[in-house]
């Protein structure tokens, strides 16, 4: 485990996904969560999505995630790849909320947040009210899925910077604590919708629209040369050597 400061709530962002394969976009989001102080640590969790059939095996996806992290970040950068879902005994319907439940049991002193894309926001907010209140989310902007002008207080936003909205550039760490305090001290109060800004610094949000599905599409239609420079070199090498996506490139 990475170093934890005594007496300070350790915030961990659970970045779960198929990572089929992991791309530069995923590691950029990981970096920006830390740089914008939304969490003290990011755990990348390759998993199984019953709604999306992965092309590569879970073991291959976990290995590629390790390679990407080890070749992108320094040894002291607070990110790691979790092997939690490599456990064969997990049920087929295991999802992000099961992961959150299990992590809270294993690390009761940690404060966990689920990282989700804006494409899943409308589905997530349809959950039962009590279940939703027990969760905290980091909402990441995704192409073609704009973030609504107002979101539930369980969500903090990591997305493009709005230069015309300087008044809302609040310290994110304080906002997260305020949301937790409000939910614990007033559990019966109705929650108002409002948008939270993720910028505790003057950083511009760095992102890319690259998706894993685009990588797979290019590999299947145009071969290895079409994804050069879009994947971490060691990940691309693993795909080629192990024929992860049955490509014909060399």
Strand and helix map with partners:
Layout: E1 10-17, H1 24-35, E2 41-46, H2 58-72, E3 79-81, H3 96-106, E4 110-117, H4 121-124, H5 129-133, E5 137-140, E6 155-158, H6 172-185, H7 212-222, H8 233-242
Parallel strand pairs: 1-2, 1-4, 2-3, 4-5, 5-6
Helix pairs in contact: 2-8
Structural summary, described in words:
- By secondary structure, the chain is α/β, with parallel strands linked by helices.
- Helices cover 33% and strands 13% of the residues.
- It has 8 helices and 6 strands.
Question: Can you summarize this structure?
Answer:
The chain has 250 residues and is an alpha/beta fold. The protein contains 8 helices and 6 strands, in the order βαβαβαβααββααα.
Q: Helix-strand pattern, N to C?
A: EHEHEHEHHEEHHH
Largest sheet: 6 strands, parallel
Uncertain segments of ≥5 residues (pLDDT<50)?
Answer: 161-175, 179-192, 195-200
Gyration radius, in Å: 18 Å
Structural class: alpha/beta
DSSP helix fraction:
25-40%
- C-alpha termini separation: 38 Å
What fraction of the residues are assigned to beta strands by DSSP? 5-15%
Strand tally is 6
């Amino acid at each position: 485990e990475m170093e934890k400061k005594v007496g300070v709530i350790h915030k961990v962002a659970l970045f779960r996904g198929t990572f089929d394969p992991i791309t530069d976009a995923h590691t950029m989001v990981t970096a920006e969560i830390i740089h914008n102080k939304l969490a003290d640590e990011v755990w990348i969790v390759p998993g199984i999505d019953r709604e999306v059939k992965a092309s590569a095996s879970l073991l291959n996806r976990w290995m590629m995630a390790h390679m990407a992290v080890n070749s992108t970040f320094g040894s002291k950068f607070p990110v790691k790849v979790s092997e939690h879902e490599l456990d064969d005994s997990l049920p087929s319907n295991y999802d992000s909320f099961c992961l959150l439940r299990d992590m809270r049991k294993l690390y009761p002193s940690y404060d966990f947040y689920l990282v989700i894309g804006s494409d899943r926001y409308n589905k997530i907010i349809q959950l039962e009210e009590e279940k939703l209140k027990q969760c905290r989310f980091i909402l990441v902007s995704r192409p073609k899925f704009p973030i609504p002008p107002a979101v539930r207080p369980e969500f903090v936003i990591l997305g493009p910077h709005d230069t015309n909205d300087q008044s809302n550039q609040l310290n994110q760490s304080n906002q997260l604590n305020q949301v937790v305090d409000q939910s614990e001290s007033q559990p019966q109060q109705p929650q108002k919708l409002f948008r939270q800004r993720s910028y505790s610094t003057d950083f511009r949000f760095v992102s890319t629209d690259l998706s894993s599905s685009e990588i797979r599409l290019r590999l299947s239609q145009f071969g290895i040369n079409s994804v050069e420079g879009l994947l971490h070199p060691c990940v691309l090498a693993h795909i080629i050597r192990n024929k992860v996506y049955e490509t014909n490139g060399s």
